[in-house]
Design brief:
This protein is an alpha/beta fold and 522 residues long. It has two domains: 16-203, Galactose-binding domain-like (Jelly Rolls, Sandwich); 226-516, Glycosidases (TIM Barrel, Alpha-Beta Barrel), CATH 3.20.20. Helices cover 30% and strands 22% of the residues. The protein is built from 16 helices and 22 strands. Helix 15 (472-484) links the parallel strand 21 (447-451) and strand 22. Helix 7 crosses helix 9 (299-308), helix 11 (337-355) runs parallel beside helix 13 (378-385) and helix 15 packs across helix 16 (503-516). The termini are far apart.
């Protein structure tokens, strides 16, 4: 089995000939459970417990052959269940992408010998729909999932990431095996996950999400926004950086708001945590988790007030902080996922309550690789993110993979300012609503989050901000195309630690504003 980078799985897979040996060596109770007990129930039938024991023996034997797992993941009857490809038993030459700490990647290097196997525990028998998140290879690509000897097959002709429906199957036995293979003449390129959900539950989840969704009109009317990664790692143009909280104290929000107004920004996305987990203001929940990571000056509150004078809305960017070893240890991500997501909701909820309507949205990073693999409580998380403002827009970053759930409004769109991103890969038509009409992001508000300078932030000592990547003519033409589709670009610009952007960047956006948002009398 190919090991994965993310530790402390909610359930583990045990491959090959060591399954029985490990089970008997480390779990005497497992040894006792292997002794089959047939309990009479009625003439011509077995007691349910006996059937469960028979299937458990079958599961262990499948594990012995490298076809299943000793520990089964519960298939949730009231929610969608994710089975990660990286967590499966692997056969063949498959490889798992290493996404770094706190993340789980996809499985690649497919050929006809490769397979993924999982075991699921069924607590509510019934009909379940199965989906796979994968990247196909075009003509001849086909995949198959076998559920306890019943095959479901689907084509994978799209060379972009997509959510493929495999079909619907009746799951009645208390323990079920799931085996995924690439069976076409052209092998699948990458596989991220298998999803299992009751069709009626899928409809109910979508309905619940739709009822709590906030309107995106203000974002569309803004035409474009600006994003800055101003963090504890931001550097000045010259010399040594200040300690983070001193830089927070020195940040001139009024001057910065004036510059954003000159740029024509309809909203600002401001970073509140990144590679190092520091928050630019007070937050009592963060203080409980790890003291010393907040600041006495409330930069977020001051910035919101300064921006409001120009009619500019404020969104907050939030990073889980998996690159910060001490912070990550305190979040309990590696040892207790339920506790981790509870703390996450408390941190985000505290921010929302603290700032109320002053915060128009959240841009929540690493949703696909850090949250999604562990079956997070999406409805609960989004409810926490909307505390203090039910109309707050939520963006979960799925990168270029399909949307992670129904419980958010805006596609993150982290990518280049390309024609494909502008037209939503064909799903954001001219004259449309701005919502994807189909495809992996179906129903979400279009957004393109793209870099204008050389990096997301200014993180190099004694260097100038990189020049803009695009000319004003190119930017204006692309923006007009996006606006015609109600697709909203969010432009990330480099910013020095003292809050300045480069003169070249400012000049570019002044030209853009003049063309896209002309002020009367100009």
């Amino acid at each position: 089995m190919k090991s994965t980078s993310a530790p402390a799985r909610e359930w583990q897979t045990i491959e090959g000939s060591h399954v029985l040996d490990r089970a008997l060596r480390y779990d005497p109770a497992a040894s006792r459970r292997l002794r089959l007990r047939v309990v009479p129930a009625s003439r011509g039938s077995w007691h349910w417990e006996s059937l469960f024991l028979v299937l458990m023996v079958r599961t262990v034997l499948l594990g012995y052959l490298g076809l299943g797992t000793l520990h089964a993941q519960t298939i949730r009857p009231d929610d969608l269940t994710v089975l990660m490809a990286a967590d499966a038993v692997h056969k063949g030459s498959l490889k798992t992408s290493d996404m770094g700490p706190g993340k789980m990647g996809w499985v690649e290097s497919w050929d006809s010998s490769g397979s993924l196997s999982w075991t699921g525990k069924i607590t509510a028998p019934g009909s379940y729909a199965l989906f796979a998140i994968l990247q196909g290879s075009g003509r001849g690509c086909s995949v198959e999932v076998t559920i306890s000897s019943k095959p479901l097959t689907a084509s994978c002709l799209n060379t972009d990431w997509e959510r493929v429906k495999l079909g619907t199957v009746e799951l009645s036995a208390p323990v079920q095996s799931f085996t995924f293979r690439s069976v076409g003449t052209s092998p699948v390129v990458k596989v991220f996950s298998l999803e299992i959900v009751k069709p009626e539950v899928q409809v109910e989840l979508a309905d619940r999400a739709a009822r709590s969704a906030a309107p995106t009109d203000w974002m569309v009317q803004a035409k474009y926004g600006v994003f800055v990664h101003w963090t504890s790692q931001s550097k000045p143009e010259h010399g040594s950086p200040l300690p983070y909280c001193q830089a927070v104290r020195n940040f001139d929000v009024h001057k910065f708001a004036d510059v954003l107004d000159e740029m024509g920004a309809g909203y600002l996305v401001f970073t509140t945590s990144h590679a190092e987990f520091y928050f630019p203001g007070p937050n009592k929940v963060i203080d409980e988790i790890l003291p010393g990571r907040t600041c006495s000056r409330d930069l977020v509150g001051d910035l919101a007030q300064a921006l409001s004078k120009h009619g500019i809305k404020l969104e907050l960017y939030f990073h889980p902080g998996h690159d910060d070893v001490e912070w990550w240890r305190r979040t309990h991500f590696d040892d207790d996922k339920n506790k981790y997501f509870d703390l996450w909701c408390r941190v985000i909820g505290q921010m929302g309550q603290q700032y109320g309507p002053s915060i128009a949205g959240y841009w929540l990073d690493d949703a696909t690789f850090t949250y999604y693999p562990f079956n997070p409580p999406w409805a609960k998380m989004t409810a926490a993110a909307k505390q203090g403002n039910p109309d707050r827009l939520i963006t979960y970053n799925s990168w270029m993979l399909p949307k992670v759930s129904d419980f958010y409004e805006v596609f993150a769109g982290e990518n280049d300012f390309s024609e494909e991103m502008i037209n939503g890969f064909g799903f954001l038509p001219v004259g449309g609503t701005g919502k994807f009409t189909g495809g992996p992001q179906s129903g979400l508000q279009g957004q393109i989050t793209t870099i204008i300078n050389g990096d997301w932030g200014h993180f190099k000592l004694n260097t100038p901000i990189s020049p803009p990547k695009y000319s004003s003519d190119t930017m204006i033409a692309k923006l007009r195309d996006a606006i015609s589709r109600k697709n909203v670009p969010t432009f990330d610009v480099e910013i020095y630690q003292d809050g300045r952007i480069s003169p070249e960047t400012l000049a570019l956006f002044k030209e853009i504003r003049h063309a896209i948002k002309p002020i009367k009398g100009e």
